[in-house]
Amino acid sequence: MTTATIAASQPWYRSLNATQWKTVFASNLGWTFDGYETFSLILVVGVALHDLLLPAQFGQIPVFAGTVIGITLLGWGIGGVIGGVLADYIGRRRTMIIAILAYSLTTGLSAFAWDWVSFALLRFLVGIAIGSEWSTGASITAETWPDNARGRGAGLMQCGLGIGFFLASFTWLFVSAYGPGAWRIMFLIGVIPAFFTLWLRTGIPESQKWEQSNQKRKSAKARKKSGAALSEEDHALTRFTFADLFADPEVRKRTVIVFLMSLTTTVAWWGISTWVPPFIAAAAGKAGLPPQTWASYAGMSYNIGAICGYIGLGFMADRFGRKPIVMIFFAASLVFTFALYKWTTDLHLLLLVAAVNGFFTLGQYSWMSVWLPELFPTRVRATGMAFTFNSPRFIAFLGPLFAGALIAQLGGFSGMAVAFSFIYLLGFVLVPFLPETKGKPLPA
Fold this sequence. Notes:
By secondary structure, this protein is mostly helical. The chain has one domain (17-208, 239-433): MFS general substrate transporter like domains (Growth Hormone, Chain: A, Up-down Bundle). The chain is 76% helix and 0% strand. The chain contains 23 helices and no strands. It has helices spanning 3-9, 18-52, 61-90, 92-110, 116-131, 134-144, 150-175, 182-189, 196-203, 208-226, 232-238, 241-244, 249-271, 276-286, 291-320, 322-341, 347-361, 366-371, 381-390, 393-396, 398-410, 414-421, 424-430. The longest helix has 35 residues, at 18-52. The protein starts with a helix and ends in a 14-residue tail after the last helix.
């Protein structure tokens, strides 16, 4: 019996070594910190604006909230693209350390905003820092884990966002009791991840695949500098990674398709799902219940579902393939948006439907950490992943702006959510145009 046959007959987790587990743990923690910071904003933005705006402006809080969230998202897109390029040139681990330190510092500074403009500007800086982290963690996990378990590793890494969202909701359940300035405490807590980088420096090694690719890049650049004839691979290695995404016809085609799929996921989530806590809080307020408490309940319920969705998509993609599972998640997201915002009225049932909605609408983000590393060669993997994951935010940042305006104009959340939800159809129809990569080695 060959070594490959023995490995294939064992449970997937027995084929993993300590380094691979530490790598996914580190990537998960980095994404958990991002999740805490991101959902903290969603939970506290209304309270923060009540503290930072004049009473005469309170009626327009949904518009100001949409603006602040949108500006954060714009910064995320810029930082994400920059971080991906850096990860391809200076390494996955080093870029992750820089990103975590940066968003820990900028999150802490957000607590000292003195008006809504300073708050929005500081959130823009936070967005830049947050955006740099995902592609490094997702790429180093994919490059470290074996082919037969890569989807599971991606799901375990990606669920960190849901864990962070849940931790933010749980923390706000207690911190919200500290009054109008409680939102500042939430952001001060966000400084803690900076201490994680002390372990990260020595806890996990750099990706061997990146190191090999980086050495090839250096050799190709040396040959170019000496005037030697360059092969097609050398030309690719000496091109700027962002330009290289669009130089190869097959890579360019994949880039465009996954960009549009990512746009679907991103516009829908930021335009619809960010309003789940205030939507349920408003319903609770009408029923005479404490809105902020129910906002926390909603956030926890939604994110318990999301954590299961992140992991579930990765595990199911390894079992059934990338294409069918991603298509199911897009279709179910459309259905359960209607279920949450239009078809459910009972408060307790809303929490249950929010969990199922979170399984699909936020859990679907795992398709990117599962599938994107398998579509780009190592030399541009982080750049390609970062571009397709983050650049849709240059468009998606308009989602919260329009959503906030629609909520104010329509006098509620339901009409806005239904209007935005049909974008899921775009992602659904694009999936068949990508190759099935289940169990296949990463592109060299």
